[in-house]
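BUG: 3D viewer hangs when loading the predicted structure for this chain

Environment: internal workstation, default settings.
Expected: structure renders.
Actual: progress bar stalls at 90%.

Input used:
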Amino acid sequence: MREPWDVFGGCQRGGHAVRRWLLLLCMASALLVAACGDSGDAVPNTGATGVNATTPTGPVANGSTGAMVGDVGSGAFTRVAPPGFENTTWTDIEKSARGTTVRMFMYGGFAHVNRWMDAWVAPRLQERHGIRLERVPMDAAVFVNRLLAEKQAGRDTGTMDLLWINGENFRNAREAGLLWGPFSGALPSSALVEAGHRDMDFGYPVEGYESPWGSAQLVLEYDTARTPEPPRSVEELAAWIKAHPGRFTYPQPPDFTGSAFVRQLLYAVTGGHEQYMGAFDKALFDTKTPQLWAFLNDLKPYLWQEGRAYPRDAAMQDSLFARGEVDFSISYHPVHAQANVGEGTYPPTVRTLVLREGSIRNTHFVAIPFNAPNRAGAMVVADFLLSPEAQTAKLDPANWGDFPVLDVRRLTEDQRARLAAVDLGKATLSPEILAGAALPEIPASWLEALEKGWQENVAGR
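Structure tokens produced before the viewer hung:
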């Protein structure tokens, strides 16, 4: 019987670890493509127009159409010139970016992510591109509001070059005209991205205004020394919470981890995710969400602090778990627990799980503001973050433990082997379990209503 990874031919020679990783990425790509309604990309040729020809030597765009199509099969990746860069080569863009500073605004609550950006990404950008990366910690909703104020004030040149953004923040920014682009089609490394990661963000069309740089999936973290038999379903989790008062909590929405946990419960207690994959439906929302609010309010007296307070963010949730105040943490990164074990924040007995009802998976992106002063530099940074080298380093639990967005069929055999050789550790679930549990994200149009509903119907009661 032919194994699923045999479609990659020579990749199988890399051994069991390679096969497991190729299987994971293949399965995950199929799930993401199905969720986004995309037929996917065909396996590219290996000749002059294949994966080794991702840096264009001619103009980024051709003629008035602004497009250069790479030979990547029926789901062809299209290079599109960003506004103001027509008939410009990628080499020209790199030269323009050299010697500049790129100010990247991003969530700053993850110490390990901050370290990786400052100690791994920034030095390489300086060495290879002459770019000084300045990381500015700020929540996405805050910088979106700042951009809106600048737009209304007519401020054509701002101070932000690159943003870590996705979900409702991207949709709000896009609809308010706060982002510059389309630009991602000009990035050479975009040709290596799996189509399901680049086309949709929480059900909202990306259309080149974002560049993906990581993939996330929700997991629960627990310590086998404290909880040798953890709950495996939503029903079992509810029973466990009631049997262990004060030992469970979750971050308060709109924190993205807490919000995702609430969305996952919405799927589980109201009949599955399929009904929510379209545009926001107020009648459906009003019919279904009372079941969710009732479920959460039934658990509220048994939560940490009896539900009178919630962790403000995922970092606080991690601290409560690490100090032993609660018995579970929640993460959007399946390798997060192993990263914390490696740095000594968690004991080596910590493991992760996904519930039987499934686990939400999504993609996170970077975008360029409408008034970014250094668009060329921002594109070079976005392209570097997508490179196989950066994606492999980011996957390492010692750095971040963030899953890649690359299509393994587009990588060289050496690049695939390097990716597969990353040791994800004992705390990380197997690729088969993660891929089999993956659920699509709810469209962005539902997010604000759900977060507002939680505030009014759970936190406010």
